[in-house]
């Protein structure tokens, strides 16, 4: 099976399950609201009944921002608010955190929320793959949670396994290589040396993170398709599968990744055009944000769906070639 | 000697004499108290500068002096117990690496000879050398040296000393030193202290302090391997190939208070000329690291902006040349000022919107005025140059480049500029100042601030905010006159805070002690706020009222009917509070719904004031300091209140943050 066929049929399946997108979006919004309310309250308190409200409606006021951050400096997560996370800044900020593991430095409040969301999505990953692998391929809340419950225990163990690898990356590799870069930088003739090393390190980090992520995606897929019980075995087999079909697994993964970037670019180009000076436009901007989030969820589902197709397609090809080989031993011998 | 060499030498001497006489022909700009003729040699392998200096020093005081004090700044890097390195471990522990033996620096004064009149044998006063520690008594600190004269030096008499010294340069960690084959040689020679206000002012080298010296003439010959490219204070009068792989450069500059030089085989040298309608022409030299070639035009343009605006606002740059040095990576020599030469600092992949190297270039070039020409005591009154200069560079940056933008470096490498979010350069100072507003007085010895941050905040941030507040209080014209007058009056001298205050009071004709006492010599916060506003129809009369000799009972209803026929009058109240301890006169702008505005001026003395208005319109809003003149106000948001607060911004910004959080959560699914 080629990557484009896997992608095409994968997209078709995702598009058949629009309710699933919206369900995941609603969960995302609800979890985000848990901290958005305190932030809103902090903003309201800060702006109060001052004329700053007028100024901030029309644009941005550095002096207020500076005071706001200072006033809420002890609240942790509120100080993460900054103009540099607006629009495309969100993407850069989060990808940055992903590569460097900087989110471990976030306030405990955010970390707890992130952990809850991860746990929820371990449950949802079972639901998503279960639905996609079921003969009807149709999303229902009951079916979704039923699949989620079925695989939660196994996926949680996969999460622990992958966590060990990510832990090694973030707590050993990142500090170790940062140290090396700093040491080399300390004796380098120009700042370009550590910067170029930093770029190389980031590229390698991206590659490893994506590779690990992909392996564990296939481990999940194998678990659902073959009803596997041992997660170590599934991971080992997933590694074998990925490396045996390296071009296709990587090609598919990165192609979908590029789709995600395209969505981000479109969002980033349009978002600043919505001047948020009236309630209608603020609402419009919010809707546009949710459209982007929906696209993001769509990308995540497409990863699962297309990788599931690729896996099943390649397994089928393997079976066919095995059958063919056993049917014509002379050919196999040749 | 072959003929060509002789002819060349004669030519050289003639050219030098011509240039020299041309320079000498000018009227002295300063008192020229400390004059140095130096002849030194750099050994790049050993990182050693050795040679001698002839110091001609004028006792400009009214007392006889039997002792002379010298700075030996390089001894700050002699061992880990010096005052500078001890303080550094406390103040900036992350900035000071473990120094190896070869990284240490020191200066040995080998001999000091008192040169008398011609024919009189010089007197060796080397045995009288004594290290003293006037600031902290630290016995390991040898950054101040005292020598005793055989006979007291009478007032207005000149003394001539011949000093031989060897300076081992440290690894560049703080302003001076080497990094591989890059040399930035600052604070490197035995430098006499300043005798003023009846005493020697010769402080030890502290981690948070800069320098102080008398003006004079520097005539310095530097010998070093011929592959080195050199930049230095002053004009290069001549260069001489010594025929042994070394070259000697002679630099000469009058009316400066320090001499610095740099050498590296890798510099790219660019020259340009600053021209102006009425300011004198200045040759701009840029010594650039090869890997920063892309910054060439930006460095030069920024330097020219500084020459232009500082020149227009305060007074012309008085020297024919300025040298901008792009320091080597991790040389510890970036962002520093010296007479006629300053260092910038650039970082690969930095777009112009990030204002680097523009910001540092303008700031350091600006120090040619506030430090170079106005020679205040940086040990004791750091705010007088850092504050003045930070204020001035904010103004230049805004004029020349517009606002600052928010930015971040993606993966700590790739810059991303958020052009939607801009701010005035001057506003940045408040971020640093606010958390430390009450830690220290602004006027304090540099090493006596509670921390390095407090020193920085009080010298730079509060200094700049103070000048902005002063400018806004006085108005642009009067303020321009103040700064220009101060600069012109005190150039090439050593003003104290009171000298500046005197100029302010003279130019404005006002007693400004209330301002400086609170801001410069105090550490209280300044914060004015609108406490409460209200507006409602005037209360109707009700009850017994004696009118025309008769008692009448008036009901509220009757009054209401009367009022219906007439216009409704609203009583509006505004309470303004002084939350901080700093008393400052403030304006209060009150706006009514019909568009009418009324401005009140409150002296700010008591803790609060109430304004009451009876108008045919409801109150809409009230704002204290509506034009945001008082840059020192630590809370700007509480300066206003409106009857119709807007809820939209809280939603707007909360939604934007929510999007980031939603995105973050989705990013987390990577791990699930």
Question: What's this model, at a glance?
Answer:
Chain A has 334 residues and is mainly alpha-helical.
Give a structural overview.
The complex is a heterodimer of chains A (334) and B (672). Chain A contains 12 helices and no strands. In chain A, 36% of the residues are buried. Chain A has helices at 3-16, 18-47, 52-58, 62-71, 88-100, 108-133, 141-187, 192-226, 231-244, 246-270, 279-327, 329-333. In chain A, helix 2 (18-47) packs across helix 4 (62-71), helix 6 (108-133) crosses helix 7 and helix 7 (141-187) runs antiparallel to helix 8. Chain A has one domain (3-81, 89-315). With 334 residues, chain A is mostly helical. Chain B is α+β, with helices and mostly antiparallel strands. Chain B folds into 4 domains: 1-265, Immunoglobulin-like, CATH 2.60.40.1730; 267-369, Orthogonal Bundle (Neutral Protease, domain 2); 404-519, no CATH class; 528-646, Immunoglobulin-like, CATH 2.60.40. Chain B is built from 12 helices and 34 strands. In chain B, the strands form 9 sheets. Chain B has an 8-stranded mixed β-sheet with strand order 5-4-8-2-1-14-17-16, covered by helices on one side. In chain B, strands 19-20-21-23-22 form a 5-stranded mixed β-sheet, with helices on one face. In chain B, a hairpin with a 2-residue loop joins strand 9 and strand 10. In chain B, helix 3 packs across helix 5, helix 7 packs across helix 8 (476-490) and helix 8 (476-490) packs across helix 9 (497-508). Chain B is elongated. Residues 1-8, 10-16 and 18-25 of chain B have low confidence and may be disordered. Chains A and B meet through helix 2, helix 3, helix 4, helix 5 and helix 6 of A and strand 24, strand 25, strand 34 and helix 12 of B.
């Amino acid at each position: 099976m080629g990557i484009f066929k896997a992608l095409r049929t994968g997209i078709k399946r995702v598009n058949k399950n629009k309710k699933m997108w919206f369900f995941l979006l609603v969960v995302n919004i609800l979890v985000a609201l848990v901290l958005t309310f305190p932030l809103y309250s902090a903003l309201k308190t800060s702006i109060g009944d001052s004329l700053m409200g007028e100024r901030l409606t029309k644009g941005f006021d550095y002096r207020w921002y500076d005071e706001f951050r200072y006033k809420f400096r002890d609240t942790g997560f509120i100080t993460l608010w900054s103009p540099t996370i607006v629009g495309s800044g969100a993407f850069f900020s989060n990808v940055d955190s992903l590569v460097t593991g900087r989110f471990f430095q976030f306030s405990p409040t955010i970390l707890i929320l992130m952990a809850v969301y991860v746990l929820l999505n371990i449950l949802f990953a079972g639901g998503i793959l279960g639905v996609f692998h079921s003969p009807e391929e149709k999303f229902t809340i009951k079916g979704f949670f039923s699949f989620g419950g079925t695989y939660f225990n196994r996926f949680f163990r996969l999460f622990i396994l992958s966590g060990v690898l990510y832990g090694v990356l973030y707590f050993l590799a990142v500090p170790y290589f940062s140290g090396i870069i700093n040491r080399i930088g300390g004796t380098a003739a120009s700042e370009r040396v550590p910067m170029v090393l930093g770029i190389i390190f980031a590229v390698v980090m991206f590659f490893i993170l994506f590779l690990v992520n992909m392996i564990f995606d296939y481990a999940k897929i194998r678990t659902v398709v073959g009803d596997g019980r041992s997660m170590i075995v599934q991971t080992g087999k997933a590694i074998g599968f990925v490396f045996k079909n390296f071009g296709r697994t990587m090609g598919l993964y990165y192609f979908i990744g590029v789709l995600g970037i395209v969505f981000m670019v479109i969002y980033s180009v349009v978002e600043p055009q919505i001047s948020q000076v009236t309630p209608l436009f603020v609402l419009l901007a919010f809707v546009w944000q949710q459209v982007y989030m929906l696209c993001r969820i769509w990308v995540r589902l497409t990863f699962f769906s297309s990788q599931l197709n690729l896996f099943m397609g390649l397994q089928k090809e393997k079976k066919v070639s095995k059958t063919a080989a056993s049917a014509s031993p002379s050919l196999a011998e040749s | 000697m072959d003929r060509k060499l002789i002819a060349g030498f004669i030519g050289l001497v003639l050219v030098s004499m011509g240039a020299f006489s041309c320079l000498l022909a000018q009227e002295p700009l300063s008192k020229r108290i400390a004059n140095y003729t130096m002849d030194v040699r750099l050994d790049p392998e050993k990182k050693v500068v050795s040679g001698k200096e002839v110091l001609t020093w004028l006792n400009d005081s009214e007392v006889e002096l039997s002792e002379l004090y010298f700075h030996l700044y390089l001894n700050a890097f002699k061992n880990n117990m010096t005052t500078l390195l001890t303080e550094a471990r406390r103040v900036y522990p992350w900035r000071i690496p473990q120094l190896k033996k070869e990284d240490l620096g020191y200066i040995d004064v080998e001999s000091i000879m008192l040169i008398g009149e011609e024919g009189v044998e010089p007197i060796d006063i080397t045995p009288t050398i004594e290290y003293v520690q006037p600031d902290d008594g630290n016995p390991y600190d040898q950054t101040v040296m005292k020598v005793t004269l055989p006979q007291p030096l009478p007032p207005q008499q000149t003394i001539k000393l011949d000093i031989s010294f060897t300076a081992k340069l440290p690894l560049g960690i703080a302003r001076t030193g080497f990094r591989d084959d890059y040399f930035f040689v600052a604070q490197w020679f035995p430098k006499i202290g300043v005798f003023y206000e009846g005493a020697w002012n010769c402080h030890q080298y502290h981690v948070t302090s800069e320098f102080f010296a008398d003006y004079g003439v520097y005539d310095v010959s530097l010998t070093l391997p011929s592959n080195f490219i050199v930049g230095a204070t002053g004009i290069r009068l001549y260069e001489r190939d010594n025929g042994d792989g070394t070259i000697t450069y002679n630099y000469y500059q009058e009316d400066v208070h320090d001499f610095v030089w740099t050498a590296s085989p890798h510099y790219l040298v660019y020259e340009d000329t600053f021209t102006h309608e009425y300011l004198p022409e200045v040759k701009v030299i840029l010594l650039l690291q090869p890997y920063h070639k892309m910054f060439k035009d930006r460095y030069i343009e920024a330097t020219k902006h500084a020459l232009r605006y500082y020149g227009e606002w305060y007074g012309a740059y008085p020297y024919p040349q300025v040298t901008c040095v792009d320091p080597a990576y991790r040389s510890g020599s970036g962002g520093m000022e010296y007479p006629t030469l300053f260092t910038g600092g650039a970082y690969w992949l930095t777009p112009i919107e990030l204002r680097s190297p523009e910001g540092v270039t303008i700031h350091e070039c600006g120090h040619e005025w506030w430090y170079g020409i106005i020679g205040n005591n940086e040990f004791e009154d750091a705010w007088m140059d850092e504050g003045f200069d930070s204020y001035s560079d904010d103004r230049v940056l805004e004029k020349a480049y517009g606002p600052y933008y928010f930015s971040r470096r993606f993966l700590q490498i790739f810059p991303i500029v958020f052009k939607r979010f801009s701010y005035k350069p001057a506003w940045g100072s408040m971020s640093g100042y606010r958390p430390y507003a009450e830690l220290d007085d602004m006027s304090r010895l540099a090493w006596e601030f509670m921390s390095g941050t407090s020193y920085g905040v009080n010298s730079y941030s509060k200094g700049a905010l103070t000048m902005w507040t002063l400018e806004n209080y006085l108005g642009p014209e009067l303020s321009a006159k103040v700064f220009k007058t101060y600069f012109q009056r005190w150039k090439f001298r050593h003003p104290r805070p009171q000298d500046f205050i005197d100029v302010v009071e003279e130019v404005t004709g006002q007693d400004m002690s209330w301002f400086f006492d609170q801001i410069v010599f105090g550490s209280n916060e300044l914060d004015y706020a609108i406490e409460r506003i209200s507006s409602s129809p005037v209360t109707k009369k009700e009850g017994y009222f004696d009118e025309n000799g008769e008692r009448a009972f008036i009901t509220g209803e009757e009054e209401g009917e009367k009022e219906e026929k007439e216009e409704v009058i609203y009583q509006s109240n505004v309470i303004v509070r002084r939350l901080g301890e700093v008393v400052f006169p403030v304006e209060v702008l009150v706006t009514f719904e019909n568009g009418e505005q009324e401005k009140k001026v409150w002296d700010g003395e008591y803790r609060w004031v109430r304004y009451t208005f009876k108008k045919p319109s409801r109150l809409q809003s009230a704002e204290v300091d509506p034009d945001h003149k008082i840059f020192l106000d630590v809370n700007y948001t509480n300066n206003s209140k409106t009857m119709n607060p807007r809820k939209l911004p809280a939603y707007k910004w909360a939604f934007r943050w929510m999007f980031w959080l939603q995105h973050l959560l989705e990013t987390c699914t990577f791990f699930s």
